[in-house]
C-alpha cells in the first residue's frame, strides 16, 4: 500500500497539469467590439449670412420641427423680389407674344405701305417723263440716272413695307412663343429656388434628438456648407460593432445580441439592424491575439429604451445570443 501512494500522487499531479494545459489552450468565444453611437445629423449653412437668432442649447433634447437658429434673410429676400419681378416680366412678355400684334400696329403698317406705294408711283412717273427728253438730249444723263435710281429705291420701300404688313398679319411664330415659355419657366424656377433658400434660413430640426453642437454663435457668419448644428437623432443609441470572421456566418439582420457597456454592470439586449457584406480591416482596439490578422464586418445593433440614457462614444462588446423572433 505504501508503494502505491507516490504513484497516485504523480497521477493526480499529471491530471491537474493536463487540465490546466487544456484550459489554457481553450480559446475564448469571439466577441464583437465597438462603440455606442447615435445617428448624427449635420445641418449645413445654406448661405453665407449672419446668425441672428439661436433658440436651443447644446445638450438640449428637442422634437422634430423645433427651430434651432435663424440666419439674416435681408439679402435673400431682395434676391427673391428681383427673381419674382423678372418672372412677372417674362409672364407679361409671353402674353404679348400669344396675343400677337395689335390692330393699331397692323393699321400703321398698311398706312406705311400705302405711302410707300404713292412715293413709288411718283418716282416712276418722274422717271418716265424724263425718258422722252433724254432722246433729244434735253436732260442730263446724270439726272436720268438719278430718277431711275429713285424709282428703284421707291419700289424697294414698297416691298419692305409689304413684308412688314405680312409679318404682322401672320402673327407670332410658334418658335417665339416656345422661347417665351422657356424664359418664363426659367424665371419662375429661379424665383422658387430663392424662395426655398429663404425658408432654409430658418434652421429647424428634421428629426427628434439631442443637440450635440452649435459651432457658430449669435452674430457669427458661417461659410456656405459649414455645419450650423449637429444633432444626435434617435430615442436610444445603437452599438456600432466589428463582427469577427468566426462570428460572421451566424450573425444576420434581426438576430439578438447582448451588448456590454464599459463601466456598466448591466447588459443590454439589442437586434442587429445592419451588417455589411464587405469586410473591413480590424480596428486597432479589436486586435486580440490571433484575431489581429483577421477581417471584421461592421454591424449596427439597435438597443431598446433601457439604453436611452447611455452617452455616445462608450466602448462596448457584444455577444451573439440567437436568431430574433
TrEMBL record:
- The stretch of residues making up the signal peptide is 1-23
* InterPro entries referenced in this protein's UniProt entry, alphabetically: MdtA-like_HH (IPR058624), UPF0194_transport (IPR050465)
UniProt keywords, alphabetically: Coiled coil, Signal
Cellular location(s): Cell envelope
Source organism superkingdom: Bacteria
Q: Which GO terms describe its cellular component?
A: cell envelope
User: Does this UniProt record's set of keywords contain Coiled coil?
Assistant: yes
Q: Which PANTHER family does this entry report, sorted A to Z?
A: EFFLUX SYSTEM COMPONENT YKNX-RELATED (PTHR32347), UPF0194 MEMBRANE PROTEIN YBHG (PTHR32347:SF29)
- Name this polypeptide is given: HlyD family efflux transporter periplasmic adaptor subunit
Source organism per entry reads: Dyella tabacisoli
Amino acid at each position: 500500500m505504501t508503494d502505491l501512494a507516490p504513484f497516485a500522487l504523480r497521477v493526480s499531479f499529471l491530471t491537474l497539469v493536463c487540465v490546466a494545459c487544456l484550459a489554457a489552450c481553450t480559446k475564448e468565444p469571439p466577441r464583437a467590439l465597438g462603440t455606442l453611437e447615435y445617428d448624427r445629423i449635420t445641418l449645413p449653412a445654406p448661405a453665407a449670412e449672419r446668425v441672428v437668432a439661436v433658440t436651443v442649447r447644446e445638450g438640449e433634447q428637442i422634437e422634430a420641427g423645433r427651430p434651432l437658429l435663424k440666419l439674416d434673410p435681408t439679402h435673400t429676400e431682395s434676391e427673391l423680389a428681383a427673381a419674382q419681378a423678372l418672372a412677372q416680366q417674362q409672364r407679361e412678355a409671353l402674353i404679348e407674344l400669344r396675343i400677337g400684334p395689335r390692330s393699331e400696329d397692323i393699321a400703321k403698317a398698311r398706312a406705311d405701305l400705302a405711302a410707300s406705294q404713292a412715293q413709288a408711283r411718283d418716282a416712276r412717273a418722274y422717271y418716265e417723263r424724263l425718258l422722252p427728253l433724254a432722246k433729244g438730249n434735253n436732260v442730263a444723263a446724270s439726272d436720268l440716272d438719278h430718277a431711275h435710281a429713285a424709282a428703284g429705291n421707291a419700289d424697294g420701300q414698297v416691298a419692305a413695307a409689304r413684308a412688314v404688313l405680312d409679318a404682322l398679319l401672320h402673327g407670332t411664330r410658334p418658335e417665339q412663343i416656345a422661347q417665351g415659355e422657356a424664359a418664363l419657366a426659367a424665371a419662375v424656377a429661379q424665383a422658387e429656388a430663392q424662395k426655398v433658400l429663404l425658408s432654409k434660413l430658418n434652421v429647424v430640426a428634421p428629426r427628434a434628438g439631442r443637440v450635440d453642437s452649435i459651432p457658430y454663435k449669435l452674430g457669427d457668419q458661417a461659410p456656405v456648407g459649414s455645419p450650423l448644428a449637429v444633432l444626435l437623432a434617435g430615442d436610444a443609441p445603437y452599438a456600432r460593432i466589428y463582427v469577427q470572421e468566426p462570428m460572421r456566418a451566424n450573425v444576420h439582420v434581426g438576430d439578438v445580441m447582448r451588448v456590454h457597456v464599459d463601466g456598466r454592470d448591466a447588459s443590454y439586449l439589442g437586434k442587429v439592424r445592419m451588417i455589411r457584406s464587405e469586410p473591413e480591416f480590424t480596428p486597432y482596439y479589436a486586435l486580440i491575439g490571433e484575431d489581429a490578422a483577421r477581417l471584421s464586418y461592421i454591424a449596427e445593433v439597435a438597443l431598446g429604451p433601457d439604453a436611452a440614457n447611455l452617452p455616445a462614444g462608450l466602448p462596448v462588446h457584444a455577444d451573439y445570443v440567437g436568431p430574433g423572433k
